[in-house]
Amino acid sequence: MTKRLKVEDNMISFIGLHLFCRIFQTSENMNWQLEEEELVEVLVDETQDEGRGLVVYNDDVNSFDHVIETLIKVCRHERVQAEQCTYIIHFKGKCEVKKGTEADLKPMKEAILDRGINAAIV
What domain range includes position 33? Predict the structure, then answer.
């Protein structure tokens, strides 16, 4: 009977050790999940950089045709898209004409500014 208790005691210790390891592994997994969530947040921040917009503002100087041709040449818009953006610029005061990273939008902004049209990256 004493041997039987020792075997059972060893089994209980083994089960206790197994449960402790299982809880410890779960705890590590929880930490891993938290680290994974932090990585996801960083990735979301990096993708938000691609969500920058090139905004063109209305003025009383430039003609519709000049703005349309600029959007076609600089932003590679189709004519219909350039016309629609130009009407939005005229009636609303501004229009986001392109989305992308700041590195991609900066040369476009500079080209639009060189043509005498107000633009900014937001």
Answer: 1-49
pLDDT tens, position by position, 79-95:
999 999 999 999 999 99
The pTM is what? 0.61
Q: Determine the residue type at 28.
A: E
Classify burial at 117, counting beta carbons within 10 Å of its beta carbon; exposed 0-12, middle 13-18, buried 19 or more.
buried
| Token code pair at residue 109 | 């902004």
- Give pLDDT tens digits for 37-49: 554 454 545 445 5
Could you tell me if 20 and 74 lie in one domain?
Answer: no
Integer Cα distance of 86 and 6 in angstroms: 87
Distances (CA, A) of 9 to 1, 2, 14, 19, 21: 12, 10, 8, 15, 18
Whole-Å CA distances, 42 to 29, 38, 50, 121? 20, 6, 13, 22
